[in-house]
Known about the structure:
By secondary structure, the protein is an alpha+beta fold. It has helices spanning 17-27, 33-45, 55-65, 96-103, 121-132, 152-166, 202-208, and strands at 3-11, 73-78, 82-88, 108-114, 137-143, 173-178, 221-223, 226-228, 240-244, 249-250, 255-259, 263-271, 281-282, 286-291, 302-305, 311-322, 334-339, 342-355, 362-363, 374-387, 398-402, 409-418. The chain is built from seven helices and 22 strands. Helix 6 (152-166) links the parallel strand 5 (137-143) and strand 6 (173-178).
Amino acid sequence: MSELLRFATAGSVDDGKSTLIGRLLYDTKSIFEDQLEAVERTSRERGDEYTNLALLTDGLRAEREQGITIDVAYRYFATPKRKFIIADTPGHTQYTRNMVTGASTADLALILIDARKGVLEQSRRHAFLSSLLGIPHLILCVNKMDLVDWDQDRFEEIKAEFRSFAMKLDVHDLTFVPVSALLGDNVVHRSANAPWYEGSSLLHQLEEVHIASDRNLIDARFPVQYVIRPQSGTHLDYRGYAGTVAGGVFRPGDEVVVLPSGFGSTIAAIDGPGGVPVTEAFSPMSVTIRLADEIDVSRGDLICRSHNRPHAGQDVDATVCWLTEASTLSAGTRLTVKHTTRSVKALVADLQYRLDINTLHRDDTAGALSLNEIGRVRLRTQQPLFFDEYRRNRTTGSFILVDDATHSTVGAGMILGPSQ
């Protein structure tokens, strides 16, 4: 089974992001003939001298700009080595929430820079958000190199400037690729126009980037989503706990503990899709765990190892991105926190600072967070949460905030740790 890589694309206006995505889809033969014919026809009607591959994604972009849809556009393609999901995120400041949404599950972020314009404020913002969201791999595509005559000095200048900024961030794996999305240079195949570039093509890097070790295989975490207990038939004695593994590895025979009750047991069996037994389960597998003992387990509980438990507490510090213009977040705001499969009432005990995502400046005097703003808050929950720091586990370290009156999602948060 080929491995899946999720990556988010970000960039400034007219930096060629749509063309790059179109080029990847076209050169990997991931578009239908009628789609290609429509793009070629539209290109001719517009008087373009070439097939405008940006048209493959521009329909969605136009919808987004008109306010018809504010979500992220997703694209799918595959090569013999890997399957890919592209989250095409908008670049404007007012769409920060969209980038947070689209990049929250990404393994890799692809940031485009126009070789003529260099590193812009938006480029820094996208890199910061990628770092904030804990995306382990970052590829900086310096696009439109053909318009600067494949000038190596220009590429090295951009590379040095961006690397200098990235040193302030938590970026572990940073790669630079000079490309021309329009002409296809260094996108799917290496280009002869840049003999000085010793790296591989963009697609080759996407196929080869090592993501297996990014998952937390140490801390075993299994949030219970559903209790399976047949009411009729031949399996009346069956009792299993279904959910998605959020971390670590579970095997039959493992000693585990259920939170919040603290009752211990042993894993009797693990059933995969269709009830087929599996010998081990790890993230992000969806399985049903059966325990040797009949203990009280319900939705929202967490199964973990006896000697490796998450933090348990009602006071957490978190970074929150506010996602709605209908209200603001401030000290005293009451919300529902949805964390893994658990929902609890919460109070914003303190807004510690608002973060300027362009300058990284912390505004300690801020009284509230508005739409697209990011800040550090202290939450007090009515019942304990069972969590890890976000940088250690992106599943058990994240949550969403829900408005109790409208039931709308109004915020997304990344847990920094227990409140000090």
